[in-house]
Design brief:
The structure is a single chain. The protein is α+β, with helices and mostly antiparallel strands and about 80 residues long. The chain is about 40% helix and about 30% strand. Strands 1, 2, 3 and 4 form a 4-stranded antiparallel β-sheet that branches. The N and C termini lie far apart (about 35 Å).
Length: about 80
Amino acid sequence: MEGTYHPELAGHRFEIMCLKDVGEMWYAQFAVDGRPYPAFFEPKSNVHHMPEDEFLAYMKCQSLTMCCYVDQVAQA
């Protein structure tokens, strides 16, 4: 499913370092391609309707966004 609906995930390896239910948010940290990235909060209201596999794919996409942010800050 990830490759079909989230082609940006193809070719990357993800590891869930932390995924906690914190009130109205999910607190998540992923390692992408063996490199840990900063944790982030995701409002439950954004993902409450998703089945588990789609939720995990969405969170992986969010972690890729964090990767891009970290890389941009490092280049500035």
